Description:
It is a single chain. The mean pLDDT is about 90. By secondary structure, this protein is an all-alpha fold. It has helices at about 5-10, 10-35, 45-65, 70-95. It has 4 helices and no strands.
Amino acid sequence: MTNTNTTLRQLSAFVPIILSIAALALVLSRVALFGAAHQADEGAAAHLWQLLMAMQVPIIAFFAIRYIPQQPRQVVPILALQLIAILMACAPVAYFHL
C-alpha cells in the first residue's frame, strides 16, 4: 500500500491543483491590474481561465478512475484537495461577477 504523499506525486494528482492555482493567479492578477469592472466582451484572460478549468476535468476523471479502485483511502483526500483548489479558482470569479 502506498500513502497519500506517494499518490499525490502522480502527475494526474497534482496537475489539476497547479491548473487551479494558475487560474486563480490569472483572475487575481487581472483584477489587480484592471479592476473588477465587468466588460461586455470576454477578454483573453477569461478564455484562458475557462481553458485552465476545463482541462482539469479529464485529468481528474482519469485520476479517479485509475486510482480509486486501487487505493480509495489515499485518493479521496487528494480529490478533496483538487475540489478545494477548483473552488478557490472559482471564488473570485463569482465574487467579482467576472
